[in-house]
């Protein structure tokens, strides 16, 4: 399996590099407010020192050996040079380029500078864990301690901008091993559902009680008039006693831990709702994602009131084959139950570690999936309302297609749709969009250097895989620098 994952990833990464077309060749719609992604003058906000740092960071990301062995090289550096020297080098290079600061106070200058160009910030307290080297009590203690940190992040977003956004990684609030266990139970329950259903459409009450507890089944049955389809009961996790599911079922202790996770996430969502801030729940590895989807669904039911903006967004990685199906089910559920729906669309950040069979066969399939879902969500929002979309992408063609689909139907300044790029990447997309009045945000991770290293390594990998985009940005910076020298 590992070798098939690596081969599929390598093929897809190669396709991605060759797919990148020169930005000038992208066919933009013929509208006056269409952004110009090849206008180097829009990068004049950067200092010469920032251009130099960006050039070094983006160029180093193009060396596959460095990217693949980043963790090993970091360990060697800390062994030879020491943690303090290594962290200072990182602070002046990759951390300084991709991260906004180390706490809520040090990110203020970055926020102010972005706001001068009509760009907002998505605050991300970039802490996460795989839980592999810690005891259960230690993991639970750390997760409890992070709740106030996320709440501070929410308040900082509210204090610095109207309609702020905060990104949340569920592995910062839950033991990753618990998320994996819950995901296993969900996947198995869905498999049992499909096996018992009538052509995958519905399950009778007696059949449902073989999958989840009798009390839960009775409760669901009352809500859907005798039969159940996958939209009405998407997760089907519960403590039950069916011998057919003895292995994947959750123990009472695991159910209690899951309730604690829901309490933590609920406290952060409460703070967001009270402060008018939207929470973007990040997507993570597929081994965790079913549990994360389940938690997000419960949060949306509680906090995304009809007629109001969606407090809680889910994130969908479009390199996964099931992305379109999941999005459509989640939209249908929100319509049935009458709550507002928020979706952030990304291509994905964990392809290096995903099972090959879950990933689209080609990068073009991923592009098609992304663009299809942008159009689908735009159409749903135009026709039915109650939807907000964040197009988080570094792909100029996807942005141009979204802008074209918005024409004559959606005001660019409407919160219905917004665009986002990572801090330190794709300024050549963010600034032209903002200059034309579109809602644009930069994803601003912050935290202590040791905490954000997993994030920095993923950014290096992402830059390595989108070589065409990085080379375009380097070329634009060079042109902007020459323009500055000539004017001086």
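-> sequence recovered:
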């Amino acid at each position: 399996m590992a070798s098939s994952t690596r081969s599929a990833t390598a093929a897809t990464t190669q396709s991605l590099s060759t797919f990148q077309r020169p930005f000038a060749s992208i066919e933009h719609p013929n509208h006056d407010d269409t952004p110009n992604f090849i206008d180097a003058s829009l990068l004049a906000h950067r200092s010469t020192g920032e251009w130099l740092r960006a050039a070094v960071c983006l160029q180093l990301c193009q060396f596959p050996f460095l990217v693949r062995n980043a963790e090993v090289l970091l360990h060697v550096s800390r062994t030879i040079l020491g943690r303090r020297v290594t962290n200072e080098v990182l602070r002046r290079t990759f951390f300084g380029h991709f991260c906004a600061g180390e706490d809520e106070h040090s990110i203020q200058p970055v926020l102010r500078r972005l706001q001068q160009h009509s760009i907002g910030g998505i605050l991300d307290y970039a802490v996460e864990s795989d839980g592999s080297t810690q005891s259960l009590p230690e993991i639970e203690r750390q997760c409890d301690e992070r709740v106030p940190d996320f709440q501070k992040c929410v308040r900082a977003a509210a204090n610095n901008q109207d309609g702020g956004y905060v990104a949340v990684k569920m592995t910062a609030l839950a033991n990753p091993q618990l998320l994996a266990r819950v995901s296993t139970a969900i996947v198995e329950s869905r498999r049992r559902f499909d096996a018992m259903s009538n052509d995958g459409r519905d399950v009778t009450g007696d059949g449902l009680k073989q999958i989840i507890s009798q009390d839960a089944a009775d409760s669901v049955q009352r809500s859907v008039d005798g039969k159940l389809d996958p939209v009405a009961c998407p997760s089907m996790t519960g403590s039950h006693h069916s011998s057919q599911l003895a292995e994947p079922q959750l123990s009472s202790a695991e159910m209690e831990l899951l309730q604690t996770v829901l309490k933590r996430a609920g406290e952060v969502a409460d703070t967001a709702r009270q402060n008018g801030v939207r929470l973007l729940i990040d997507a993570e590895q597929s081994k965790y994602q079913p549990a994360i989807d389940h938690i997000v669904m419960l949060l949306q039911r509680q906090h995304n009131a009809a007629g109001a903006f969606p407090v809680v967004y889910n994130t969908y990685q479009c390199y996964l084959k099931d992305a379109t199906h999941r999005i459509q089910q989640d939209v249908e559920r929100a319509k049935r139950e009458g709550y507002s729906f928020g979706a952030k669309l990304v291509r994905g950040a964990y392809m290096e570690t995903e099972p090959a069979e879950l990933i689209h066969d080609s990068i073009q399939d991923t592009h098609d999936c992304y663009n299809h879902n942008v159009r689908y969500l735009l159409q749903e929002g135009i026709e039915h309302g109650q939807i907000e979309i964040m197009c988080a992408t570094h792909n100029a063609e996807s942005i141009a297609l979204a802008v074209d689909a918005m024409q004559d139907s959606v005001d660019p300044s409407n919160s219905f749709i917004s665009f986002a790029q990572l801090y330190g990447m794709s300024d050549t997309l963010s600034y032209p969009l903002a200059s034309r009045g579109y809602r644009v945000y930069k994803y601003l991770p912050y935290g202590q250097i040791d905490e954000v290293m997993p994030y920095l390594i993923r950014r290096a990998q992402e830059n390595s895989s989108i070589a065409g985009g990085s080379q375009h940005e380097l070329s634009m910076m060079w042109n902007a620098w020459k323009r500055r020298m000539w004017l001086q």
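The chain is about 55% helix and 10% strand.
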